Amino acid sequence: MNKKEFHEVWSKPVIKIGRTTLLLSVLLSFVPVLYLYFTHGIFPELSTALKAWGMIASIFGAMYFVEPISYYPTLGLAGTYMSFLSGNIGNCRLPAAAMALDVTETESGTPEAEIVSTLGISGSIVINIIGTTLCAFIGAAVIKILPDVVVSALSTYTAPAIFGAMFGSFAMKNPKLAVFGMGIPVGIRLVAPQTPAYIIIISAVFGTILISRLFYNAEKKKAAK
User: Fold this and answer.
1) Exposed/middle/buried for residue 52 (C-beta within 10 Å: 0-12, 13-18, 19+)
2) Which domain holds residue 35?
3) Per-residue pLDDT tens for 120-130?
């Protein structure tokens, strides 16, 4: 199947369904606000709503640009739609997609990777729903009987451990890029400790992409010779 056929069979339906579901979720997110307004007459002032949005945008605004670009090669088209709808991208969807590609030895960015990553993400969403449901019923009871040191460790180190494992997995495949992926944020932090986190994130992501492009062009020229 060539790229044109793949686009017709896979990409176009995915875009149609993805746009529909995401736009529908955006509209449905206003239902609680409308309920409070029409039922109880409660509605925030525009200045308050904009102030709240500004606070969130200042914290997560960089992610609006960084995550879709940096995650897309692993998540793929369908996986991107599914991941941004279901959430838990960095700590669940991305590891699931990366592991699916790794186990099947599929190269990122290929049509095969698109299918494989979608299957991996689909499985993670189903398991996540089951796990979340179970945790809602028994999680609190289990946490109560665990020692404080264990609870503290789980809440403090779980996310770093996941991201560390992800970095290690990709570093083994691209050790040269791993040096820059780790070196850029560490270097910025050492040289300018007061640099905002979003600046460091943007610099690390797009800096690594630029370095990757330079390596790709260099290898391409070398192969042409």
Assistant:
1) exposed
2) 1-43
3) 999 999 988 88
Could you tell me which residues come within 8 angstroms of residue 86 by beta carbon, excluding any fewer than 6 positions away?
93, 125, 128
- Could you give the CA distance from residue 176 to residue 22 in angstroms, rounded to a whole number? 37
**What are the tens digits of pLDDT across the range 17-40?**
999 999 999 999 889 888 988 888
Residue with tokens 């890029």: 177
pTM to 2 decimals? 0.68
**Does a structural domain hold residue 76?**
no
User: Is 65 inside any structural domain?
Assistant: no
Tokens 């944020």 correspond to what residue?
Answer: 185
Length of the chain: 225
Give CA–CA dist 117/78, Å, rounded: 9
